[in-house]
Amino acid sequence: MDLHYRVAIFGSARIQEGDQDYKDVFEIAKGLAESGFDIVTGGGPGLMQAANAGTQSAQSSSHSIGLNIKLPREQEPNSFLDIKQEFSLFSNRLDTFMALSDAVIVAPGGIGTLLELFYAWQLVQVEHICETPIILYGQIWKNLLQWLENEVMERNLFSKSDMHMIFHVTEPLHAVDLIKQIHADRLQVEHACKNFSKYRKAIQTSKDAEHAGYLTNLLKQ
Fold this sequence. Notes:
The protein is of the alpha/beta class. It has helices at 20-34, 47-57, 90-100, 111-125, 142-152, 172-187, 195-204, 212-218, and strands at residues 6-10, 38-41, 64-69, 83-87, 103-106, 134-137, 166-169.
């Protein structure tokens, strides 16, 4: 197992336990944790909680990590976190997600989830981070992908090559298997790119040290 291979799971804070999306994200995180991957979420309720709970249910050596944001509503840390950190600024939190994560799963969500999706995608596009797979989970993303291809790409506002790390799956097992295959392929590459190494400099040179020391401490876990 690649030490500290981490998967970020983004998704809505509003989807409750019992909802099918909650169950699916729980199963995805559990499957990944059973395979030895750490899971990184926003640390809050909803699908973030589902991912953290799924990780802990695997009873493996994988870490359940939460990067919580201080908000006037919705965002209290869930109770399924092995490691947690709170942030005052979305920008610091987003950069920490990117530095820690080697793959991204985007579950159903709203504005915050879309922000995380497009931030990760932008950094991949401009090569600020490694070629990080971004897996869109669920039927909710079908129309978005069609719009991007039929409207935005059709007008040459971005290139087809910008889609090369975007994947769309609708079954929990497919998401787990895809991550496992990508990781297996990565193990065949000598000196494979790691986001913690590639993107860490941007974190460490930040004037706001809210997240700088946290990254270093986390890798000691």
